[in-house]
Design a protein that fits this description.
By secondary structure, the chain is mostly helical. It has one domain (4-351). 75% of the residues lie in helices and 0% in strands. It contains 18 helices and no strands. It has helices spanning 4-17, 21-39, 46-54, 58-75, 79-111, 122-131, 140-159, 163-178, 181-187, 193-217, 219-223, 227-243, 258-274, 277-280, 283-293, 296-310, 315-318, 322-342. The two termini are 35 Å apart.
Length: 353
């Protein structure tokens, strides 16, 4: 356990290192969860299939982590870091869909097959950039993340020290909208693209605000003081969230179980962020975690694209097996590893990290 002096020393050391191995490990596990959610179909296990259908707090956990670490940039008005954040998000958001478009159309012209079932044109690309779901639908998350980051940044500059309170109110309002007749009216339509993005933003807003709130309170440092007790409580809560039918399913789109997703994301975040992995793992394992976690973004960008083309040649990928998912992850990792080395001194490195 930490006493107050040791806790302060740990926080100072942590701030100097700018890393948390638990969070890095969690990002790797979340990346694996995302890949398996999209590329794995457990034919012989109804329990695993039920888990994937009923537990979708992998993406909310990514949001919680993102905004937890973004809070300091907002409160300090660190323009350089804020600009770097937008560049890191915007570069893959606009460039990868264009690369996928070129490869899709090249395969269409030369081999008479294509990932997106047709030749993609400039209008399709424009729609993709505007809403993140034109033809490569997996970038809806990037769209929500970019819009949320932009909105939160503007509010932080307008309201200064009170911006977190304003965002907390917006989080509460978005949750109320989620449970209102207005939200039900949105969801009974034919899911027009813009409408769908509005629904997804409403569903993601509460967990985003939790991330900023935890960042403001430095929650991982506070809980470190009695991390064993807090981890035991969070493990129990996580078990209840996953295995007990506590929360009612609401009408919605992808992430309508806001309460379940929020609590599940918080459980995972606290467990991994306060467990002292740096004290129980040897340096080699820590180095592997750091190297691999540097490319979780790239794995997310590429996994669905890779699934399609690898599935043309590799039966494990085509049949959506767990082994096929590992193949996809390894393939994406090597692309990201060498790509980041090749473009290390340019903004294109953001395509792979």
């Amino acid at each position: 356990m930490f006493n107050n002096y040791n806790l302060k020393m740990y926080v100072n050391k942590y701030n100097r290192n700018h890393s948390n191995f638990g969070i890095q490990l969690l990002r790797i596990l979340l990346a694996f969860w995302v890949v398996t959610a999209h590329c794995y179909y457990p034919v012989h296990s109804k329990n695993i299939l039920h888990f994937y259908k009923s537990n979708k707090f992998h993406v909310p956990t990514f949001l919680l982590i993102t905004y937890y670490f973004y809070y300091n940039k907002l409160i300090k008005k660190d323009i350089t870091k804020i600009n770097q954040r937008f560049v890191r998000l915007f570069i893959p958001y606009i460039i990868w869909p264009f690369i996928f478009l070129l490869i899709n159309n090249l395969c269409h012209n030369l081999f008479n097959f294509q990932q997106f079932f047709r030749k993609i044109n400039a209008k399709d690309y424009f729609i993709q950039i505007i809403i993140g779901r034109g033809y490569y639908s997996y970038f809806w998350f990037m769209n929500i993340l970019l819009f949320g980051t932009f909105l939160f940044t503007i509010i932080s500059f307008i309201f200064h020290k009170h911006f977190l309170f304003i965002l907390q109110l917006l989080g509460l309002i978005s949750y109320r909208i989620h449970l209102s007749p207005f939200y039900n009216h949105l969801t009974v339509k034919d899911f027009a693209f813009v409408q769908t993005e509005l629904i997804l933003f409403i569903e993601m807003m509460p967990i985003s605000v939790f991330g900023l709130t935890f960042g403001a309170k430095n929650i991982m440092y506070i809980l470190k003081n009695q991390y064993i007790k807090h981890i035991i409580i969070q493990v129990f809560l996580l078990y209840y969230v996953i295995n007990l039918d506590i929360f009612r399913e609401h009408q919605g789109f992808l992430y309508q179980s806001i309460e379940k997703n929020t609590i599940g994301a918080i459980n995972l975040f606290i467990i991994f962020s306060i467990f002292p992995f740096e004290n129980v793992l040897n340096q080699r394992i820590i180095d592997i975690i750091k190297i691999f976690s540097n490319h979780t973004g790239g794995i997310y960008y590429l996994h669905a694209f890779s699934k399609f083309y690898l599935g043309k040649k590799i039966i494990f990928v085509k049949n959506k097996t767990l082994f096929g998912c590992f193949i996809i992850i390894i393939f994406c990792y090597f692309i990201c590893f060498f790509g980041s080395k090749l473009f290390k001194k340019t903004i294109l490195k953001n395509l792979f990290i």
